[in-house]
């Protein structure tokens, strides 16, 4: 069993998730491989910052920090990285809870010095109590979860998923951190892709690097009722297309769309066939799942086209906005 120290970073931005944040922290404190520290990074919300600071005032292993960079998830994560002291930095979404052996599953592979990142599996927890019968498992990434088509077991991957992720601390020496301009930034549009961009840059900086996905490192990710509707599905798939255009702009389309090509040419057609077969077998939602897959592909493709055009016209570039330890201390 690994004895490496793990710092856990949880980025938060709204009081609407107060109970979720407390549950996320509690799940970290219950780990069989204890975390060195839990860093709660609050994204430009003074009220939430004050409230969390009071909540964990007497809890030494939980530190509450202000995002020392620009608004957004990337800068929040970079703030946590700068403040962290562990050999491994793990990231957990603020509306998710980790199973008790989550950090142990993360820590074990780092005994191989070539391993620079390990991700895990995110299981959806539907607010309604069950998956909507029209919602295809192939699109669970829409709600921040692992999706049908990911390889099982512990396998090498191009990139890991940001809400359930860990990196060797030294990995950030090679790439600096998460790039701003990609991913969520406090706007209403549910963007993503910042972890894909980082992982591709990391593999380029260190061609010998191993990035792993281990489906035994499990978190349970809450899906609010508003995200169980087709309207959100459509909005999120469009935003993913925009995000993929930015990732392709940052690292090139060859690597930026490498995994997506297999997904769209193999996984999704199989999902459509499965949905139509389920319909023939009188299973609920079969044709709706098939239709949702087709709609998701078309909407994401539309977002990608629009995002690519906008990025070319604007000459969009990306950079990692560095966050230093001194900045974190001044913002504390």
Order of helices and strands: EHEHEHEEHEEEHHEHHHHH
Distance, first to last CA: 34 Å
* Shape category: globular
- Model regions low in confidence, pLDDT < 50 over at least 5 residues: none
**Structural class estimated from helices and strands:** alpha/beta
Q: What is the average of the pLDDT values? A: 91
Fraction of residues in H or I helices: 40-55%
Q: Count helical runs.
A: 11
Structural write-up:
The chain is of the alpha/beta class and 332 residues long. Helices cover 42% and strands 18% of the residues. The protein is built from eleven helices and nine strands. Strands 1, 2, 3, 4, 5, 6, 7, 8 and 9 form a nine-stranded mixed beta sheet that branches. Helix 7 runs parallel beside helix 10. The radius of gyration is 19 Å and the shape is globular. The model has no long low-confidence stretch (mean pLDDT 91).
How is the topology of this model organized?
Elements: E1 6-12, H1 18-29, E2 37-42, H2 46-55, E3 62-66, H3 73-83, E4 88-92, E5 96-98, H4 102-107, E6 115-126, E7 154-156, E8 164-168, H5 171-175, H6 194-205, E9 210-223, H7 230-251, H8 253-256, H9 258-280, H10 286-314, H11 325-331
Parallel strand pairs: 1-2, 1-4, 2-3, 6-9
Antiparallel strand pairs: 4-8, 5-9, 6-8, 7-9
Q: What's this entry about, in short?
A:
This protein is α/β, with parallel strands linked by helices and 332 residues long. The chain has 11 helices and 9 strands.
């Amino acid at each position: 069993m690994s004895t490496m120290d793990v710092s856990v970073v949880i980025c938060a931005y709204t009081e609407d998730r107060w109970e979720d944040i407390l549950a996320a922290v509690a799940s970290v404190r219950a780990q069989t491989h204890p975390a060195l520290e839990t860093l709660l990074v609050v994204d430009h919300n003074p009220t939430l910052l004050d409230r969390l600071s009071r909540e964990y005032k007497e809890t030494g292993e939980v530190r509450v920090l202000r995002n020392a960079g620009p608004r957004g998830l990337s800068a929040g994560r970079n703030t946590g990285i700068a403040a962290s002291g562990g050999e491994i930095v793990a990231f957990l979404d603020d509306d998710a809870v980790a199973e008790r052996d989550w950090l142990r599953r993360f820590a074990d592979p780092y005994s191989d010095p070539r391993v620079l990142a390990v991700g895990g599996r995110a299981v959806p927890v539907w607010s309604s109590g069950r998956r909507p019968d029209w919602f295809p498992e192939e699109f669970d990434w829409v709600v921040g979860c692992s999706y049908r088509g990911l390889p099982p077991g512990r396998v090498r991957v191009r990139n890991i998923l940001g809400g359930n992720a860990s990196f060797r601390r030294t990995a950030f020496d090679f790439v600096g951190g998460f790039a701003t301009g990609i991913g969520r930034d406090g706007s209403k549009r549910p963007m993503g892709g910042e972890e894909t961009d980082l992982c591709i840059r990391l593999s380029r900086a260190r061609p010998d690097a191993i990035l792993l996905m281990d489906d035994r490192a499990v978190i349970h990710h809450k899906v609010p009722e508003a995200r169980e509707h087709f309207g959100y599905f459509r909005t999120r798939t469009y935003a993913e297309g925009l995000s993929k255009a930015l990732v392709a702009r940052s690292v090139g389309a060859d690597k930026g769309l490498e995994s997506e090509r297999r997904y769209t040419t193999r996984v999704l057609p199989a999902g459509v066939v499965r949905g139509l077969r389920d319909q023939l077998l009188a299973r609920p939602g079969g044709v709706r799942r098939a239709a949702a897959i087709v709609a998701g592909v078309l909407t994401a493709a539309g977002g990608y086209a629009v995002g690519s055009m906008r990025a070319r016209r604007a000459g969009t570039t990306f950079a990692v906005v560095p966050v230093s330890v001194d900045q974190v201390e001044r913002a504390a």
